[in-house]
Design brief:
Elements (H helix, E strand, L loop, with lengths): L10 E4 L3 H12 L4 E4 L3 H20 L5 H9 L1 E4 L10 E4 L5 H12 L7 E4 L6 H5 L8 E6 L8 E6 L5 H13 L3 E6 L6 H4 L1 H12 L5 H10 L7 H8 L1 H14 L10 H8 L34 E5 L6 H9 L3 E5 L5 E4 L2 E5 L5 H8 L3 E4 L10 E6 L5 H11 L5 E4 L8 H17 L5 H12 L5 H8 L1 H15 L8 H19 L3
Parallel strand pairs: 1-2, 1-4, 2-3, 4-5, 5-6, 7-8, 9-10, 12-13, 14-15
Antiparallel strand pairs: 6-7, 9-11, 11-12, 13-14
Helix pairs in contact: 1-2, 8-16, 10-11, 16-18, 16-19
The structure holds nicotinamide-adenine-dinucleotide.
Length: 513
């Protein structure tokens, strides 16, 4: 087993801004002596004071012993030049995001450190291989990508360039874990793991808004309440800054040679041009100025529940809704032979499989309502639903009344393929699967990164398995058929996994062949 750096080993941090100060604090709390370098001594002093204040807050909250905080601070050595890094076993760079600056810095650092020192960059977007190309010993160089604020955020992406030694990456993984972090290994590719796999979370939401699926507050509420995401994409990008989020999208899009999957959103670019950057400018998709009325999600008015329903075949993921209706006193008839829908007042209700409700209404010759994906149909506080255009008001009310049983809120969205949560989850899983397919990272590392780095309720690949790979792949197929396969194309890895799963099921049913 590869061992982490010993706590006595000195760690150098170059760049004492937002990230450098945070990373220094992490290394100090892990017991290392830390040499903190910035070209501006006032910034090092500000970083030291910031670390002291944060450690004191931890002591006040009872999360850190007073002695431990004093010892950590005593291990911090402010410095001004690369020569001060001579004794470091690991140097982490967190200076401005500029290839030439980083290359020049590492050339200087290499003149002073020993041959076995590991060198790491906290870059979020510059290819590791490109920085390494200027090094005398590129095999000792890699990316160590922390998230802001580094002392709080659990994830560290450990990024190998073409020339990075495997032993070096493993030592850094073990060290990040010893520092209390979740380490996810990845190859240096645009966006690494998180900034690549998360793109559809923003990209699909922006397209849904542009297509008039619902307003921003409603899309956010659906992704929070039904999808289990901690924040909706619009409140989250308002927090990140629309300019910052758009810049990451543009950088991944350019680095992927304008692959339409990552195409920036006109809507978001317009927000940036208008200066509607989010919280920092007082207004973005939502208004944060004093006296502003908070936006609320659209909801159907309260409707009365239907007296009876017919469950035709296996209702699948909607079974908890049937159970709740039964408990509420609705008469539930069962018809064992059916295509897995719930009949209410002469209309059919099912969960989305990616096809629009209008298509299913035409195929089945019946007004159709489709429910969006929910992580937990038994406990969800909200359901999103789309209606085929032939749905009349009486049927719409009966379906709304059924969905509202137990006090659930019901948000109606436009009848678009895959609706909101299913479309988002399918595209996140597709992106994650593609990263696996091209050897960017292993499935477990991607899932761990998305949970630890951006608080997803589950990793996208685990989520796809629990939803069902054929529903996920089918949804992408329908999106591709309707919108075009340039953007909505199934990852070969999802295709492979779906086939493998189907073969598994068949051999379980038929036994060894
Ligand atoms: N801010 C984030 O959310 C975030 C998250 C992950 C990664 N990153 C990456 O981390 C790096 C630093 O970002 P930041 O937000 O901390 O920037 P920052 O502007 O807060 O800090 C950069 C610091 O580097 C110093 N510096 C610049 N050139 C130097 C040199 N040649 N020698 C010594 N010091 C030098 C500057 O004086 C400044 O204090 C960037 O590569 C960025 O892409 C940032």
């Amino acid at each position: 087993m590869v061992r982490p750096l010993a706590p006595e080993a000195a760690v150098g941090i170059v760049g004492a801004g937002t990230m450098g100060a945070g990373i220094a604090q992490v290394a100090l709390q892990a017991g290392h002596p830390v040499i903190l370098v910035d070209r501006d001594p006032a910034i090092v002093e500000r970083a030291r004071a910031g670390i002291e204040a944060r450690l004191r807050r931890l002591v006040d909250k009872g999360r850190l012993a007073g002695d431990a905080a004093c010892d950590a601070l005593a291990r911090l050595r402010p410095a001004a030049t690369a020569a001060d890094l001579a004794g470091c076993a690991l140097v982490v760079e967190a200076v401005i995001e500029e290839l030439a600056t980083k290359r020049a810095l590492f050339a200087e650092v290499e003149r002073h450190v020993t041959d076995d020192a590991i060198l790491a960059s906290n870059t979020s977007s510059i290819p590791i291989t490109a920085i390494a190309a200027g090094l005398r010993r590129p095999e000792r160089f890699l990316g160590m990508h922390f998230f802001n604020p580094a002392p709080v955020m659990k994830l560290v992406e450990v990024i190998s360039g073409l020339l990075t030694g495997a032993d070096v990456a493993e030592t850094v993984v073990a060290t990040a874990v010893a520092w209390g972090k979740v380490a996810a290994r990845a190859r240096s590719t645009p966006g690494f793991i998180v900034n690549r796999v998360a793109r559809p979370f923003y990209g699909e939401a922006l397209r849904l808004l542009a297509e008039g699926a619902a307003d921003a507050a409603t899309i956010d509420a659906i992704l929070r309440d039904c999808g289990g995401f901690r924040m909706g994409p619009f409140e989250l990008t308002d927090l990140i800054g629309q300019d910052v989020n758009a810049a990451v999208t543009r950088s991944v899009h350019d680095a992927m040679f304008q692959d339409p999957r990552y195409r920036p959103s006109l809507l978001q670019e317009e927000m940036v041009e208008a200066g509607r950057l989010g919280r920092k400018s007082g207004i973005g998709f939502f208004d944060y100025r004093e006296g502003a009325v908070p936006a609320v999600a659209a909801e159907e008015p309260s409707a009365s529940m239907p007296g009876s329903i017919v469950v035709e075949g296996d209702p699948g993921p909607l079974a908890p809704l049937v159970l709740a209706a039964l408990e509420a006193g609705v008469t539930v008839e069962r018809d064992a032979l059916g295509r897995g829908v719930i009949s209410i007042a002469g209309a059919q209700l099912a969960m989305s499989d990616g096809r629009p409700a209008a298509e299913r209404a035409l195929e089945d010759d019946m007004p159709t309502a489709l429910v969006d994906l929910c992580l937990d149909f038994a406990a969800t506080p909200r359901l999103a639903v789309a209606f085929s255009p032939d749905m009349d008001d009486a049927r719409r009310d009966a379906i709304a009344g059924f969905l509202q049983i137990g006090g659930r809120r019901v948000s109606v969205v436009r009848d678009l393929p895959g609706l909101v949560v299913l479309r988002t989850v399918a595209m996140l899983a597709n992106e994650a699967a593609d990263a696996v397919h091209f050897g960017v990272a292993a499935a477990d590392d991607i899932d761990a990164a998305m949970v630890a780095g951006v608080n997803y309720p589950q990793g996208p690949l685990a989520l796809a398995k629990s939803v069902g790979l054929s529903r996920i792949a089918g949804t992408i197929g329908h999106l591709g058929r309707i919108y075009g396969e340039d953007r909505y194309r199934l990852s070969p890895e999802l295709h492979r996994a779906r086939l493998a799963r189907a073969l598994d099921v068949r051999s379980a049913e038929t036994g060894p062949r």
